[in-house]
Design a protein that fits this description.
heterodimer; A: eight-stranded mixed sheet; 7 helices; 8 strands; 33% helix; globular; B: Aminopeptidase; eight-stranded mixed sheet
Chain lengths: 199, 191
């Protein structure tokens, strides 16, 4: 995994910033996926997949399909944000499938996870589950976080099943949280705590 | 799509017990005194940070009003007693987050917060035409939760270990008020 040995449980937030910036370049190898830094060449593929409503429908902040320019702005913002750690998800054959990220709140020792398998021909093959497990291991063992949370569309049953398999617990429902295709939709909040993940 | 008003257009609001007027630079020293009062700070995210400086407060409270936040000073008996904000106003998804703090402690538990929130919800649903107002509060803040329920907020879930208070993980409750519920609520009828 990463070359960092297990991080101490408590350390100064400034150190955590430093680690996150450095370590986001690491490669994480799983049983079904390899996580690696997002490269500029990935962006046109993301844009192409995000033009598809079937993919975009499940994503927050994706009310209209991004242009390549917008996607590059998003990428540059993330790259320059010390609290964002982002990976591209590849299959073991080296085929790009999507991306996954952690948005850190170091002072609270927590992060929000976001993931999307953009290539829908690769849905339901366990790629997302493997990627989430890799990122959770990284979050709890390398970054010594206490909580990883996420939000997902209430109707996204496939994603919720995946998150539950990875140890996430449903904490509640934000009612009428998003406007999707002209209708209000609810958002599920889930989290996994370090103790649960280790237990 | 809902309307977002610039801070400069934000109206003053008048309730039965309180007035809300737009927050300005000159209010920051008062906010600093409140936010550094240990009893007030206990319930704020401020409790996980060092003492608030004027600059911190300017950045966190005043600066966002240039973008997607409306901030009011709550006044009663002719003096400021607290601050109320509608934050992260999202005109596309028609939602925002509410935060309130009564800084003058002798006004705690006497309905001043409830009156202020009622005014702000009327503004969020009636003027900004939002569909949802959410909030986060400490899970052990029984007085706050009771007040929010009175105002029409519904408890939606618990974020476990969501923040730290004096270095210890603390659960937070999230609640939401919906425009369609507000339309038929008693709070509104009492106005």
């Amino acid at each position: 995994m990463a070359f960092w040995s297990h991080a101490p449980v408590f350390f100064a937030p400034s150190l955590l910033y430093h680690i996150a910036t450095v370590i986001s370049e690491c490669i994480l190898d799983g049983d079904r996926v390899r996580l690696r830094p997002v490269a500029d060449g990935d962006l046109p593929h993301f844009v192409q997949w995000l033009a598809d409503w079937d993919v975009r429908r499940w994503l927050a902040e994706m009310d209209s399909p991004p242009t390549l320019k917008e996607e590059r702005q998003w990428y540059d913002r993330r790259r320059s944000d010390p609290d964002a750690v982002m990976w591209a998800i590849d299959t073991l054959e080296g085929r790009l499938a999507g991306n996954v990220e952690l948005r850190l709140q170091p002072m609270r020792r927590k992060a929000e996870l976001g993931i999307s398998i953009h290539d829908k021909t690769l849905w339901s093959q366990g790629l997302g589950t493997d990627a989430v497990r890799l990122v959770l291991h990284y979050a709890f063992e390398e970054l010594a976080l206490n909580r990883v949370e996420l939000m997902t569309d209430e109707e996204n049953a496939r994603a919720i099943r995946c998150y539950e398999k990875c140890g996430f617990v449903r904490e509640g429902l934000l009612r009428q949280h998003r406007l999707i295709d002209g209708k209000f939709g609810n958002t599920v909040v889930m989290s996994v705590l370090a103790d649960e993940w280790r237990g | 799509m809902a309307r977002v008003m610039k801070m400069t257009e934000t109206r003053a609001l008048t309730g039965a017990k309180v007035c809300l007027r737009p927050l300005g630079e000159h209010d920051l020293p008062t906010l600093q005194i409140w936010f550094n009062d240990p009893d007030v700070r206990h319930w704020l995210h401020q409790s996980e940070r060092p003492e608030a400086t004027l600059e911190d407060i300017r950045e966190r409270i005043l600066r966002p009003t240039e973008q997607n936040t409306i901030a009011w000073v709550i006044e009663a008996d002719g003096r400021p007693i607290g601050v109320l904000r509608l934050m992260d106003i999202d005109p596309y998804h028609r939602r925002c987050e509410l935060a309130i703090s009564i800084g003058e402690k002798e006004y705690w538990g006497r309905g001043y917060g409830t009156d202020a929130i009622g005014q702000a919800l009327g503004y969020a649903f009636g003027v900004l035409e939002l569909g949802r107002v959410g909030l986060l509060t400490d899970a052990d803040n029984a007085r706050g939760i009771r007040c929010y329920e009175k105002c029409g907020f519904v408890r939606e879930g618990v974020l476990r270990h969501h923040r730290l208070r004096y270095g210890r993980p603390l659960d937070m409750v999230f609640m939401g008020a919906l425009g369609e519920e507000w339309e038929r609520s008693e709070v509104r009828g009492q106005k």
